[in-house]
Amino acid sequence: AAGVIQSPRHLIKEKRETATLKCYPIPRHDTVYWYQQGPGQDPQFLISFYEKMQSDKGSIPDRFSAQQFSDYHSELNMSSLELGDSALYFCASSYRTGRIYNEQFFGPGTRLTVL
Amino acid sequence: AQKVTQAQTEISVVEKEDVTLDCVYETRDTTYYLFWYKQPPSGELVFLIRRNSFDEQNEISGRYSWNFQKSTSSFNFTITASQVVDSAVYFCALSEEIGANNLFFGTGTRLTVIP
């Protein structure tokens, strides 16, 4: 079965650079979530989109932005990178049935290292 | 506000032993969902189970079983006859019906199964 695809899998950037992470949800999934997992930490919710509209916002820094495109893929844009942004970034997707969001399936993650 | 507590930071067991991972949650919503995810050393997040707040029936899936008790706000996970491949970090998570269903994770329990 198709899974969530994330690219790139690994990314190394310098401080103050920008980075773009991409997420391709499972086919027919209409909701995308982004999570950030720092070293030894639990995943923290950043932002989510449903049908190309932002649906919820968590602890996403102002330096980050994201969007969901017409083909449902999503991109997380990160600017002015800081050392503390080094983390594993997960994308997850699900589909909505009426008011109910079904379980989220996670991609393999993008490991971002900021030097 | 929602909160998930996994009091056990690390657990070590010898292969073939049974082990229970504890999860206690807090929420003001009457409708919510509880999850367990496994994160092996490779880093991906593997979905194990989703349970809604109206379904207190315990579930068994092979060597895995889950005990959901609303009276104590607990959703514990038991692995029977543990195997080395069970070594991973296990996260309990909560989502609420109101909102976009983003996940609130506990801090995780690192399980090491010793051969």
What this model shows, in words?
The complex is a heterodimer of chains A (115) and B (115). Chain A has no helices and 13 strands. By secondary structure, chain A is mainly β. The model of chain A has no long low-confidence stretch (mean pLDDT 93). In chain B, strands 2, 5, 6, 10, 11 and 12 form a six-stranded mixed beta sheet that branches. In chain B, strands 3-9-8-7 form a four-stranded antiparallel beta sheet, with no helix packed on it. In chain B, strands 1-4 form a two-stranded antiparallel ribbon. Chain B is globular. Chain A binds chain B through residues 31, 33, 35, 41-45, 48, 50, 55-56, 58, 88, 90, 92, 94, 99-101, 103-109, 111, and chain B through 33, 35, 37, 43-47, 50, 91, 95, 97, 99-108.
Helix content of chain B: under 10%
Main interface: chain pair and counts: A-B, 28 and 22 residues
The main sheet of chain B comes to: 6 strands, mixed
Structural class of chain B: mainly beta
The major β-sheet of chain A equals: 7 strands, mixed
Taken from the alpha-carbon principal axes, the silhouette of chain B is globular
Strand content of chain B: over 45%
Identify low-pLDDT runs of chain A: none
